[in-house]
Amino acid sequence: MRKHFIVRDCLMEQLGQMDSAQVILSFKDRQVTVGELIDDINSLRMALYNHGWEGKTIAAIAQPTYEYIALVLAVVCSKMTLLPLYDGWTMEEKESYIKKGSAIICYEEDEKIADLLEEGRRLKETGQRFELNDDVLPTDVSMLLFTSGTTGEAKAVQFMQKAWQPYMEQIGELGWNLSSIGPQLIALPLFHLYGLALLLAFLSAKIPVVISAGLRYFIAELEALKPTTIFLVPGQVSLLYKMMVDGDDGNKGELRFGYLKRVFFSGASLSKEIAERFKSLGICICSAYSMTETSGIAIDPPEVLDPKPGSSGRIMPCARDYVRINEPDQNGYGELLVSKDYVGIFKGYLDDPKGTAEILYDGWLHTGDVARIDEDGDLFIIGRIKNTIILSNGENVSPEKLERKVMELGGVRECLVYEEDDR
Questions:
Q1: What is the rounded CA–CA span in Å between residue 239 and residue 407?
Q2: What is the model's pLDDT at position 253?
Q3: 329 contact partners, CB below 8 Å, separation of at least 6
Q4: pLDDT below 50 — which residues of the chain?
Q5: Within 10 A of 53 (CB to CB), how many other CB atoms are there?
Q6: Strand pairing partners for 202?
């Protein structure tokens, strides 16, 4: 891994090694070649600098469109900060986040981004030049991501340039020959770190990307592309499972997805029933773990063909010396801590030193996750510290762990574990 990491150097270096005529991005209504993408990123950057927005925050409503993706890439390749917004948020929420993030402008429509792109193209045609190798630093804030966690009040995570490195360089160094798995479908929210991290990871690995037009098109897009590997959230994995179970004509549902070999998920756990069904079909269910505040921490490596039940992935080599379990119990469970010196650690919550100090202190970021790390480096998370029930005898009980056990019983649809009278 390079010592002085910035997105622009990594991304442009990798794209520059590809055939400029190769299709690198596909959308519902268009395809984009490598050459077009490079030119448009630079044109947008020229237009942004022409407006004097160096060091400013640029907000945009996330859409599964080329205009939005091109703007995202242009901003994170520049000395600027991206503030991605979810279209489903209320106008009041959007305005609040724009104000809190001090965004200089908010792009709500693709037409406005297209106008900006044309402006950049005209600047190039007239011979005007701007210094596109600006002094971007690894510690510059690349993106503001609003996350409420379990506190209810949204906090703006300052995600630095160097925090992209675990996604853009470490995945390849793990031994994943990503270029051999073919084009990848991204059907994840594009205002969220998971979706945007995959976008940059794939592009920096020279993998063509297909951007899903939305959940209603997901299954059709999956069947058209027929990927062997796909990255999803648990809800999408459950949808695939339902399609398999409810398939017409006997095993038709299962046969529809026979091309899948690995399904990665992150964000929550899967039920034992779903995991076992996929395994019976020869589909490897793999896991990954990250926080917006920490970037990537764990992912199942390619040599793991049968991941351990309950694992959240294997600690990535770049993170091995920067994570530990705090005050582990007799079973090895304690709070997962991440060193402040880890490359993926955030710069703090924007304008919230108190909130930052509550999670990042004594040299460690306190994730709040109850976890253990086994001898192979596999990470197991069973719940949240704040949910832990402490009985009068001092025993710590994870309600999430018990709930998962109960859910494995036949006929149980929902359950809740709580403390009453010290039981």
A1: 18
A2: 53
A3: 396
A4: 150-151, 248-250, 390-395
A5: 17
A6: none
